[in-house]
Amino acid sequence: MQEYVELQGKLQEQLKQGLMSLARARYSMGGRPVGQDQYDPTMVATTRCMVSPGSGSGSGPGSSAAGPSGQAAGKDAAGRRSFTVHHIAIPPPPACAAAADAGDGKANGGGGAGSSSAAAAAAAAAAGGSGRGAGASAGRTKQAAAGKAGSGKTGGKDDTAGLEDALMEELDLEEEEEEEWEEEAELREAQALLRRLRMEAEAAQRGGAAAGASGAGADGGKAEGAEGAEAEAKVGAGLQRKRGTRRAAAAPRDPLQWFGVMVPPALREAQSEFAAVVETCLQLATTAQRVRPVA
Amino acid sequence: MAAQVMNNEGMLLAVLADEDTITGFLLAGVGNVDLRKKRNYLVVDSKTSARAIEQAFKEFAARDDIAVILISQQVAGQIRNVIEAHNRPIPAVLEIPSKDCPYDPNQDSLLTRVKHIAGFN
Known about the structure:
By secondary structure, chain A is mainly alpha-helical.
């Protein structure tokens, strides 16, 4: 129990240092905010924890495969569990992917661009879907177009983004590299394709209002064209590629990137300090398991 | 259940704290938003109601992919009764100091529980 209180003291120190670094970073970043608005909505945890049971307990719901960091921990008394940190490596993105992500990031940042990305994503989905079955994809495009034309722009984007993400789970990362290179080349064709698709969808649904909006949207940002290029590539080469680029967005990225490309060193320090905080927290959790009455 | 956890290569940590603390933890790679847009953190500020905090805590406790819930002492004070009612070993609940107030062992529900048991002996 003494250990618990000592660890808490240590945790407090580390937390204080981490927060100080964060404050310093915020100061040196000047106008750019550092806060929850910068969080990536598709973030994936890279720091997880393995729970290994003590020697006595059987396969409890918390037990996990012996990861590399799990071995050191499992020495507790029977029935007690211990927690260890398990880091998932972040795949280093190729240079093009980083640029594409930055492009995507800009598109998402702009308010007006949001709906166009939704339409682009829907169009991409539609384009991809045509290889499989026109009915489903057409339905999706219409739904997205309707969502866009109506007031729920962000809602539509979330839906399609959710669909995309769900699709991506099945994907291969290798595809993404080829894709990046082709993107640039097919940019213009993709934009034309997008416009055509939008027109078709809208003609099927309503009048010119949506078409006008989508036209403006299409011109609005190159990143949307990039997504359209993905659509093109996919139609040409099959579903796999498109999902590949999307996959890049969903694969674990370094959270430092959320705050810009060039981050102040204070932010990096904050990151490593908080990583230490997480370690201490897990040690505390392990100690707490020992201290608490057996449950 | 166990198989699902193994595939994920580890379980998540949930965090309920003020914005800066959460930003720090997210920088360390703790944050996760899954396919259903469920987050494993909750930013608590002056406008957050105790009810919302309670609900978030119960959600985290019910999820089977969360191993540890980190909660800052200030926030813990607001939902003290819910925390004390939480009896299961997984997910483990851990109180961390808040940005503004230093760690107070008298408030930590874990220690008070231990003291009860030890004290009456």
